[in-house]
Description:
Elements lengths: L1 H24 L4 H12 L15 E4 H9 L8 H18 L4 E6 L8 H14 L2 E7 L18 H13 L2 E3 L10 H4 L3 E7 L6 E5 L14 E2 L2 H4 L1
Parallel strand pairs: 1-2, 1-4, 2-3, 4-7
Antiparallel strand pairs: 3-5, 5-6
Amino acid sequence: MKLALALVVLVIVCLLLAAWCLGARAPAPAAALGGALARVQGPARRRAPDPAQSPHIVVDTLNLTHWHLRGRGAVLSPALIAETIDATAPALKLRHPGRVMYVLKDRESQFNDDAARAVYKDAASRNGVYVSAAERYPDPPAGAKASAEHSARGRDDFYMGVLAHRYRCAVLTADRLRDFGSFRATVQPFHVVEYAFWRDLPHREYVRPDAAAYSRMKKPRTIHPSAYFG
Length: 230
């Protein structure tokens, strides 16, 4: 009896040892291998969101107005710019439920006056959008260097890049923004007057393009107006 019991115990021990040996030699589970490979290779790179699919969009207002006129030869005026905003805002808001941001600038030969600003404020209010005017300083800040380069007039284009970078979205324009890389060196400091549809008073922002804060800003993704308006 004792001998039979001893044989049974011996068989059980042998089976346990055999199972342990097979388990030690078995390949690592797929999940474990995946985790090990991930540690070796590092975290997988995430694809950056497509700016064109953002709920927000920045609009090159003067360029869009020229495109909207399509050779009619009219001189740009605050009223004509407001007409373009009225005509295009509904379609843009349908595609972009976030912030629809129209950016423009004052004329090189004339500062914006209260009448022009009132037109932009009203356009923002009735269309439920944002209208930002990039304006020159009557007296530029100390240290600002004037430039004769064409790109020096691109304060509105530069600010479009600021907004596109800030909200990770695209710019609606027919312009290829070829001068974008020169703006930090040529555009003088300027201030922006932003009119929001939900706010009675405008918001002011002061921009110095050569500031280090803009050193890594890249040319924004652009979308041609024909993608929205045919």
